[in-house]
Design a protein that fits this description.
Structural class: alpha+beta
Bound molecules: uridine-diphosphate-2(N-acetylglucosaminyl) butyric acid
Number of strands: 23
CATH class of the largest domain: Alpha Beta
Strand content: 15-25%
Shape: globular
Distance between the termini: 29 Å
Number of domains: 2
Largest sheet: 4 strands, mixed
CATH architecture of the largest domain: Alpha-beta prism
Number of helices: 15
Amino acid sequence: MARLTIRGGNPLQGRVTISGSKNSALAVLAAVCLADGESVLENIPHGTAILTMCLILRQLGAVVFLDKDERLHIDASAINQYKAPYDLVRRERGSFYVAGLLLGRLGRAEVPLPGGCAIGSRPVDFHIRGFSALGADVSIEHGYMKAHTRSLQGTTLYVGRQSVGTTINLMIAAAQAEGVTVLENAGKEPEVVDVAILLNSMGAHIRGAGTDVIRIEGVSRLQPVTYSIISDRIEAGTFMMCTAMAGGEVLIENVVPEHLRSPIMKLTESGVSIEEHDSSLWVRSEGRIKATDVETAPYPGFPTDLQQPFVSVLSTADGTSVVRENIFDRFRYVDELRRMGADIRVERDTAIVRGVEKLTGAPVEVTDLRAGAALVVAGLGASGETHVHGAEHIERGYEHFTDKLRALGADIEHDDPDIPEASADFSALYR
Ligand code: EPU
């Protein structure tokens, strides 16, 4: 288990560059594999989630490698396996996008069901219903979703709960289906839009991404492309939270401010000063903010992925905040915050956060990626040492997180120098 030590109390100062979006990259990696020939992806983040996805695509038969300029080359011409490896897929829920890819590309897919995880039960029933509606013969056998079809047929579908993953998986599957597919109640997240832009640059006909209704006119062939992935709005939001908690002044670069409208609004309401520029945010905080109420919602609402880091910030706010989580079962980390002195009561989907003067460092354990970010945020503002156990969860989705924080003046380090930062794991992908 990887462990971080944080000695809290240092205000953050300087500039930080945001990496490519993990959740976009996971989807783009699958989508780009619909084409034959070599595509090149830029701005790929070096988190272990992405590494896992690359290894899955390799096992399916794709050629995947990084060049010295960190550009990812990917050629799916030789994909011939329709069965995705359980050992890798179970590690990364986003890898379920290979289901849409394999069905679209080979007309056949056998992909392990992702199962539950630390943020609750995460079914894929909407994805499966969508594949069936597109004409695939789908069954669940021995823990796998097995689907096959002679050709997918366009249809009109309602996407349950504006599911991001379902919207993307069905866009990938339908890009080369016969006829027109209409996705109603589609996810509007920037990651959905990114995948639609990518597919269109490959020759797909997708309209309406970013609205409730997406129309996909199937095409017979897609071409390889060079494409740069959007920056990670959740990483940017996390650095906003780090600054709000620790205090200081940070210029967050390589961001799309429009993607962060709701977190910017909430932090501003709490007394954090945020100046927006074309592709950067200037964040200033005194360290203690005002309480506020918030509830998570699909985009453009407040993202569930920032709920946990925001609760850490609110735990030392002046006053009581009410935080409602509408997307996942995502309050387990609150027990860890309590170990640091936070006063938080959870009632079903709602956390009542009574701000305390100061958190105190403690040993804490990470249960999932964003909980890990939340505990780091807490540690930055706490007095004394916080030991964050299970830091490997954080490395799934944050590139060079501790390095970036150290460069801003945080006192944070990996305890075991033998456990590499996530970026080092990518050595298997260089050519
Ligand atoms: N849902 C179902 N059935 C399905 C699919 C979803 O019931 O078949 C439910 C979910 O349980 C949830 C709601 O629908 O209550 C919305 O889930 P959604 O499908 O939108 O989430 P996702 O696609 O599984 C992605 C991100 C998450 C992010 C959510 C919400 C990836 C790989 N994951 O998950 O990111 O929280 O959208 O924005 O893109 C993270 O990065 O830490 C993370 C968890």
